[in-house]
């Protein structure tokens, strides 16, 4: 086999090597990225069924040597190195700082912040959340923390404790990318979750097999008392179907791409003067 396709084997090894080298390089670069102020947040609106903005989701961006590196690539690296805890603190602060500013235009606007599992279970997390919302005088219910279903993998006691500590601060909890991971409906049943974000993959296929999932989550939301957000809405058709399903909140390129902070501010002021 090797003799027959020597060049293919060589390419394969080169690819592997290239990926590994890139990881090592990015890991090195990530060490000082916070200090060098290479990170920033962009903001994507979440709208209600009337198309009115209700919140922004803060999404991290990393500019390294004139290149934008995707969070899909650098977040897992920071999770592996543990650096996500420190950087996550920065994200939360930056997002709350922006929220405080945005509230001068719309006092009820919410901010959704992605929290990685490692950060969520870090000892100092709850205190940090408390401190930040106090510092920026933010009513807790305006801050929504997005965690993925992987939080359910730790034991029930630990989850419930963390969730109730956070809810004592008033902050809301969302399950991100719902339907893609380790989802146990019974766990959700036992938990006090505020929002569920249905993953983009179901919205993409809403005209075919995605619909039954969306309907099932909608039905569940009524008895279990959580709100539903559809993410990754890209077309009018998708929006229409979701509306027919009674989905109260939507997010996606159809409404807006993530925006730089100044753009997001303009978007909000324009929406408020309508
Ligand atoms: P996510 O939390 O599921 O965020 C949604 C992702 O989908 C974002 O990608 C967003 O730009 C993109 N998106 C939004 N609407 C659409 C749409 O209509 N179509 C398509 N195709 N994509 C859409 P992004 O910004 O590249 O972020 C990727 C992931 O990186 C996030 O997925 C999240 O898991 C993670 N991430 C981003 N920022 C942070 C952060 O501050 N902390 C943590 N822990 N994770 C973050
Ligand atoms: Ca998210
Ligand atoms: Ca998501
Ligand atoms: Ca996702």
UniProtKB/TrEMBL annotation:
- What is the protein's name according to its record? Bifunctional diguanylate cyclase/phosphodiesterase
Q: Which lineage ranks, top first, belong to the organism behind this chain?
A: Bacteria, Pseudomonadati, Pseudomonadota, Gammaproteobacteria, Enterobacterales
What organism does the record attribute this protein to?
Buttiauxella selenatireducens
Q: Where is the EAL domain?
A: 23-272
């Amino acid at each position: 086999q090797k003799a027959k396709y020597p060049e293919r084997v060589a390419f394969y090894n080169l690819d592997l090597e290239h990926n590994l080298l890139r990881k090592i390089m990015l890991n090195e670069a990530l060490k000082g990225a916070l200090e060098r102020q290479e990170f920033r947040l962009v903001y994507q609106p979440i709208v209600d069924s009337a198309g009115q903005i209700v919140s922004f989701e803060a999404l991290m961006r990393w500019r390294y040597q004139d290149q934008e590196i995707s969070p899909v690539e650098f977040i897992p690296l920071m999770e592996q190195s543990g650096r996500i805890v420190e950087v996550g603190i920065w994200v939360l602060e930056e997002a709350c700082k922006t929220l405080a500013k945005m509230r001068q235009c719309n006092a009820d606007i919410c901010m959704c912040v992605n929290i990685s599992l490692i950060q969520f279970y870090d000892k100092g997390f709850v205190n940090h959340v408390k401190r930040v919302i106090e510092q920026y005088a933010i009513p807790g219910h305006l801050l929504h923390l997005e965690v993925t279903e992987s939080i359910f993998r730790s034991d029930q006691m630990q989850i419930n404790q963390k969730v109730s500590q956070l809810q004592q601060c008033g902050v809301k909890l969302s399950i991100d990318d719902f339907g893609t991971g380790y989802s146990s409906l019974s766990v959700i049943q036992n938990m006090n979750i505020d929002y569920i974000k249905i993953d983009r993959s179901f919205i993409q296929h809403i005209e075919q097999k995605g619909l039954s999932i969306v309907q099932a989550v909608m039905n569940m939301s009524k008895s279990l008392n959580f709100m539903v957000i559809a993410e990754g809405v890209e077309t009018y058709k998708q929006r229409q179907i979701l509306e027919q399903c009674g989905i109260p909140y939507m997010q996606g390129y159809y409404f807006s791409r993530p925006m730089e902070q100044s753009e997001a501010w303009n978007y909000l002021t324009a929406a408020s003067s309508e």
